[in-house]
Design a protein that fits this description.
Rossmann fold, globular
């Protein structure tokens, strides 16, 4: 018995040692954060938040599910409507506010929405029994457009959002004016192309553990900033800590915050969607495929393959761009988007 207890003690010490080592590795992991990040975050935490909602908000109700949207109209006569699709594990507030403001100032009605399971949309507590697909996320858009009495729209999707935009264009080509796919894929599990980076995925998981075990407002802000730095890759541009902190804090204090289970739901939705290559070959709408040459997460070969499949596509590769939409490229990105919009204005 004494021998058995001694073994248990040794095993217990070993387990504790492993936990300490793992905890230390996680604590000291992560990218180099910007200087005075704590000072900037302190200022945001103590100040009044700016108002990020600038348009008409509402809900649609597909399959007994509530889906939130916002529609922002320009002060001048609109040149058309465009719908923004954000990336994996993100809601509508994943889009940088400065980017949206410039699109509206360019004369376009901008619509963004929270995917099922994110933001102000229903979080689907029984998701395992009733999982949704990328097609479901795209079909939600039809209800939004019907509610807003919009017949045709330009589609702009980033990362997983590009895949959802493709699904909408496939199902509703008559309602799609143009398609813009940013750092995305027509089949992310294409066996002939290198998949998403496991190294980057592991880094994102580690910062999720580092800042997510105790999800205070400060830690949640830092987690989002760290993720953006990781996804920036080797591109050379700064992260706007203040704007990111304000947007994250607005989400936490004035909306529903962030669903900790959403990554798994979105990953399953992507897996279930499979390849869209054959369906995309039938799309005649003007398409623009954009990718950053420094994207560390989704290899650019996915965008190259997508462009080769789309019959009426153009490409634009940005040298100083990772898996992100950096403020330094807002003007250049929007100029490319508008050229695509103007190729099929109505």
């Amino acid at each position: 018995m004494k021998f058995f207890m001694k073994i248990l003690k040794i095993a217990g010490v070993f387990v504790v040692a492993i936990l300490v080592i793992v905890s230390a590795a996680i604590y000291f992991s992560g990218p180099q954060m910007p200087e005075d990040i704590d000072g900037t975050i302190n200022g945001v935490l103590k100040s009044d938040l700016p108002e990020f909602l600038k348009g008409k908000t509402g809900y649609v109700y597909p399959e007994n599910t509530k889906v939130w949207y916002e529609s922002i109209e320009p002060n001048s006569p609109t040149k058309g409507a465009l719908l923004l699709f954000m990336g994996i594990a993100n809601d509508a507030f994943g889009w940088p506010q400065g980017f949206i403001d410039l699109l509206v100032d360019s004369g376009y009605q901008v619509i963004r929405y929270d995917y099922r399971g994110t933001g102000m949309s229903d979080w689907i507590p029984d998701w395992e029994r009733f999982p949704y697909s990328l097609t479901d996320l795209a079909l939600d858009v039809k209800l939004i457009l019907d509610t807003l009495n919009i017949e045709k729209v330009h589609l702009v999707g980033v990362s997983m959002g590009g895949m959802v935009a493709q699904e909408f264009a496939i199902h509703f080509p008559q309602r799609t004016l143009t398609l813009t796919s940013i750092m995305s894929s027509g089949n992310i599990i294409d066996k002939n192309i290198k998949g998403i980076s496991k190294k980057i995925t592991f880094k994102l998981i580690k910062i999720g553990l580092k800042y997510g075990i105790f999800p205070t407002e400060r830690n949640t802000i830092k987690m989002h900033i760290a993720a953006r730095i990781i996804l920036r890759g080797k591109a050379d541009y700064g992260i706007d800590v203040k704007e990111t902190a304000e947007q994250v804090l607005y989400n936490l204090r004035k909306r529903n915050g962030y669903n900790p289970r959403i990554s798994g739901q979105h990953e399953e939705a992507v897996r279930r969607s499979g390849s869209r290559y054959e369906q995309l070959k039938k799309l005649a709408i003007p398409s623009l495929v954009i990718h950053g040459l420094n994207d560390p997460f989704v290899p650019i070969d996915h965008s190259k393959k997508l462009a080769s499949v789309l019959p009426n596509s153009k490409t634009k590769w940005f040298a100083n761009m990772g898996h992100d939409i950096p403020p330094s490229l807002y003007d250049s990105l929007i100029a490319e988007l508008i050229k695509n919009f103007e190729s099929n204005p109505n």
